[in-house]
Sequence to fold (246 residues):
Amino acid sequence: MSAITKLTMSETRLFFREPIGVFFTVLFPPVLLGILGAVPSFREPDKGLGGLRVIDLYIPIAIAMAVALFSLSGLPQLLATYREKGILRRLKVTPARPVTMLGAQLLMCTALSVVTMLLIVAVGRIAFNVALPDQIPAYLVAYLLSAVSMLAIGLLVASLAPTAKGAGAIGTLLFFPIIFFAGLWAPREVMPELLRKISDFTPLGAGVQSLQDAATGSWPQLLHIAVLLGWTVVAGGLAARYFRWE
Fold:
């Protein structure tokens, strides 16, 4: 097996040894969706939303939240902890390269976040009769672009943060504005025009809109694809450039 495959499998096994981390990154977003769906008014069609229900809008938002938790909470603290404990320093004397380590973390988090996405879609469909996406290939493309762009940001935080506490603090500081513009407190459809325009240029604002477009039968807009690719290239490139073993 290749080095990146071995590292990915090893990191996945270690991830599942932390039940609290597994709950908050994999299970909490579907649970939150279930709580929101329990509000009766969220299950009623709203003329102001074009006949959609609030719970319909929260499917991509819950997916975005799951991606943000993986990217800004779990990933940066994990790598920063490895650095503090000297694990990365020991890896430095092996054939492993920074790109290999970062790639393994990306693969693991992307795979696990796909599981969370499927759980969210399943909860929405089974519990609240949310329609499945009309454009499934477009939905998957939008999801992968959103996940990779956010994970690149998380890797950048992990590359720069000197300690695990520092990584956690930076991740938390970034989490709230990013998830705000994704629509957690107010879906994009009800945001003022200025906030919606700002949201278009944030990774999860563009990601949520791309998922919503795919759910209703359209492909993501070129603007949102460009935004997601831009965040991926810039943050990912900086993460690889400034990654430190110790």
Observations:
- DSSP finds ten helices and no strands in the chain.
- The chain has one domain: 3-242.
